[in-house]
Amino acid sequence: MAMTLRLLPSVRCLFDEPIQVKVAGLRSKQVVTMRASSTDERGLVFNSSASYRQSNGGGEEAVLEPAGPALMLQSHFPERSRENSPCWGCEGSFMMLRAHTQRWDEISKGVGVISQSKGCDIALSLAAFVQGIAAVVWINGCSSNVAIPLYYKNRQILSPLMFNLSKVIPTESGAKLVKYVLEDPLAEENQGSVIPIERADGHFLFVASEDDLNWDMVWGGEPKAHAAAELHLWKKMQDFLLAHLSCSAAHTQSKL
């Protein structure tokens, strides 16, 4: 019997659909190595491999850990310093917010925002100062405006919460841990950076992980546990957004 590999439910599936990898035609106790490769939009290649042993008797199907090779993808540069990180250039997000204040004024009711890391304080600021933000998902961010003054309608509305660079922790890989460098947002001198979310009319879903290092671009945590948490969170996010956003049935249908 020839060895075959199947992806279920289909080779083509939606982004958030769980997949299974099934291999058939193996001899009893045969070891098989699965390899996966993906290239992101910047041309960075991610690879992974995992070995499995057939345990169901020769010829029967063996179900591998769902999406296992995909979950373990790593680049050749698993830890990148913030200087090389495209996510570190957050000033552009502020400039976009400042340059398009009239567009933000025209936001219709029922807008949902999903944010992570530095994007979280921008999302909270939108909810606090702009009408129409009905739901915000906040993932591993800050409750204060970080690093750069925030302007709205040509005036500064929030001062920046700054960094204490003496608290940067270098690592052997060259990456720098900045988890502890933010000043205390509750200190009196930093009160002007705290985002007044009590002014917001919308709803919030706050998500924080214990081993979060996403500000460092080291990410932290373990791949398998991280993937399980993402699956759990995705369902929670969908329930939250559907509960607080008004979408007609026509708008919720997939366009794929």
Average pLDDT, to the nearest integer?
76
How much of the sequence lies in strands comes to 15-25%
CATH class division of the largest domain:
Alpha Beta
Task: Count the domains.
Answer: 2
Largest sheet: 3 strands, antiparallel
- Spell out the helices and strands N to C: EEEEEHEHHEHEEEEEEH
Quick take:
InterPro entries: AB_hydrolase_fold, BAAT_C, Thio_Ohase/aa_AcTrfase, Thio_Ohase/BAAT_N. With 256 residues, the chain is of the alpha+beta class.
Name the features.
alpha+beta, Rossmann fold, 256 residues, fatty acyl-CoA hydrolase activity, Immunoglobulin-like, single chain, Thio_Ohase/aa_AcTrfase, 3-stranded antiparallel sheet, 5 helices, AB_hydrolase_fold
Write the layout of secondary structure elements.
Elements: E1 4-8, E2 20-24, E3 31-39, E4 45-53, E5 62-63, H1 68-71, E6 74-75, H2 91-99, H3 101-105, E7 111-116, H4 119-129, E8 133-139, E9 150-152, E10 155-158, E11 169-170, E12 176-177, E13 203-207, H5 223-244
Parallel strand pairs: 7-8, 8-13
Antiparallel strand pairs: 1-2, 2-5, 3-4, 4-6, 9-10, 11-12
Pfam families: BAAT_C, Bile_Hydr_Trans
InterPro entries: AB_hydrolase_fold, BAAT_C, Thio_Ohase/aa_AcTrfase, Thio_Ohase/BAAT_N
Domain Acyl-CoA thioester hydrolase/bile acid-CoA amino acid N-acetyltransferase: 16-58
